[in-house]
Amino acid sequence: MPSHRNLRVAEAIREVIASTILFDAADPRIRSVTVLRVEVSGDLRNATVYVSVMGSESEQKLALRGLKHAAGFFQSRVAERLQTRFTPILTFKLDDSVKKSVAIGRLIDEALAADQRPQTPGETPPPDSPPEPNTDLLHDQNPESS
User: Fold this and answer.
1) Range of the domain at 91
2) Quick check: 50 and 10 in contact, CB under 8 A?
3) In a 10 Å sphere around its CB, with 0-12 CB exposed, 13-18 middle and 19+ buried, how is residue 19 labelled?
């Protein structure tokens, strides 16, 4: 489990990189990037920055290349903030968990909407719905009992 110090360093790195992307980065490839989290190694020499990029797969790859290209710039900003003996070497990784959660949410919404849609006549009911009553059985089969 990461130490309290490592968690503070990771959060500081996340803040610096997110702020730098938002206000100081000139590279247009990294405009749609969100920094999700940072994990630092136990010796604080390496940091993995997990990002989410909105857009197509090619736009995501392009943004990741832009981040890797600007890693030295981000590292200098982190060095200014941390003031530690070593500045962690930054590695950027794409985290598609946000994209997956949006897709799952959309599937849930579609399923709920399908369940609430009224049935049209002749449409097969869903498998878990009760069978329609047989109206032929409602008439008395024995004419003498009337």
Assistant:
1) 4-100
2) no
3) middle
Q: Is residue 116, in this structure, part of any structural domain at all?
A: no
Output the domain CATH number for residue 61.
Answer: 3.30.300.20
- Write the pLDDT tens digit of every residue in 7-49: 999 999 999 999 999 999 989 999 889 999 999 999 999 999 9
β-strands 33-40, 89-94 pairing: unpaired
> How many degrees, rounded to 5, is the angle at CA 68 between CA 71 and CA 101?
110
Rounded to 5 degrees, what are φ and ψ at 114? Answer: -65, -35
Helix (H) or strand (E) holding 68: helix 57-69
**pLDDT of 118 strictly over 80:** no
Of 71, 115, 125, residue with least CA distance to 93: 71
pTM of the model: 0.69
Domains: count for the chain = 1
